[in-house]
Write a structure and sequence with these properties.
Rossmann fold, N-methyltransferase activity, 2 domains, seven-stranded mixed sheet, single chain, 10 helices, RsmC/RlmG, alpha/beta, 18 strands, about 325 residues
């Protein structure tokens, strides 16, 4: 078990009526919660982790908004998790838990000391009366929030977009996504936005438009725009050769670390899902040089657009 997960579990008391597991990258917090025999609600929005939690016996929020999933709760609750990397996700979790209706609720979130700022305390303080830091262990510490306030959650709306929780780019168009959107042809046919994020690439497109993402916050944000969006693993629920045009604006950060390997799984999915004669449009930061990875999977690859930071590749 990671030192961080061990610290979170040592600070939190798992003797409440229900245990809420928030962001849980390793699954160790889930295992500890299930071992108590108490009801466990899994609030992590990651598709893979959620499926594993469901199979292990937890009730998952899945692609339901957290405030709606928890509404009308009663009894006592303790929530544990790794501190979200975005303040938007933190606010979403805190407001959803505080406003759920529990007679008492304690939220324990752990992180590296350098990632705990006045802003994290302030966000928690909007939903809980008492926010305090635990004793540190090595380079880690927890924030403990108690005494829920009477709050509710409202997604951020701006620029014609809706941001639920910690969706990438929030309620703002992503610069790379905007270049990708401008490069798409007028005739899309059956179109898939693969890894759609906040839906900024697909918004207002007309025709046979589908979006998908493995992050529940992204799915909910895209659906708020009226998009037909699925929550799954890289379009895994769709048959082979289902789409004529695929747009891909892949993640290239794992947290704060650049990780160009994150695109591999999505490229494999694009190759499987693209119909004969179809076209993939992929945008990436130019310095990451994804062209070689695309050429391994597609016979014809060309540069469709480029600006001072991003490149769009066309592949078929």
């Amino acid at each position: 078990m990671r030192a961080l997960d061990s610290l979170i579990l040592s600070v939190a008391s798992l003797d409440a009526d229900v245990i809420l597991v928030c962001d849980d990258p390793t699954g160790d917090l889930l295992s500890a919660a299930l071992a108590t025999g108490k009801p466990v609600l899994f609030l992590d929005g990651d598709y893979h982790r959620s499926m594993a939690a469901r199979d292990a016996g937890a009730r998952i929020a899945g692609d339901t908004r957290l405030d709606e999933f928890l509404a009308g709760s009663s009894g006592s609750a303790v929530a544990v998790g790794e501190m979200p990397k975005s303040l938007g996700r933190l606010d979403y979790l805190a407001r959803s838990i505080a406003g759920a209706g529990y007679s008492s609720a304690t939220l324990v979130l752990g992180a590296n000391n350098k990632h705990l700022t006045r802003s994290t305390n302030a966000v928690l303080g909007e939903s809980f009366t008492d926010v305090a830091a635990s004793l540190g262990r090595g380079k880690f510490r927890c924030l403990v929030a108690t005494e829920p306030r009477a709050v509710n959650y409202t997604p951020v709306e701006s620029n014609g977009l809706v941001a639920v929780g910690g969706v990438f780019s929030g309620a703002k168009p992503d610069f790379g996504g905007e270049l990708l959107r401008a490069t798409l042809p007028a005739a899309l046919g059956r179109f898939l936005d693969l890894g759609c994020g906040n839906g900024s690439v697909s918004r207002a497109l007309t025709g046979d438009i589908t979006a998908t993402d493995s992050d529940a916050d992204a799915v909910l944000s895209a659906r708020a725009l009226g998009l037909n969006c699925t929550w799954d693993d890289a379009g895994s629920q769709f048959p082979d050769a289902s789409f004529d045009t695929i747009a891909l604006n892949p993640p290239f950060h794992d947290g704060t670390t650049v990780d160009s390997t994150l695109v591999q799984h999505l490229l494999d999915a694009a190759a499987r899902l693209l119909a004969p004669g179809g076209t993939l449009y992929l945008v990436h930061n130019s310095h990451l040089r994804y062209r070689g990875d695309v050429e391994k999977r597609f016979a014809r690859v060309s540069q469709a657009a480029r600006n001072d930071k991003f490149t769009v590749l066309r592949a078929s």
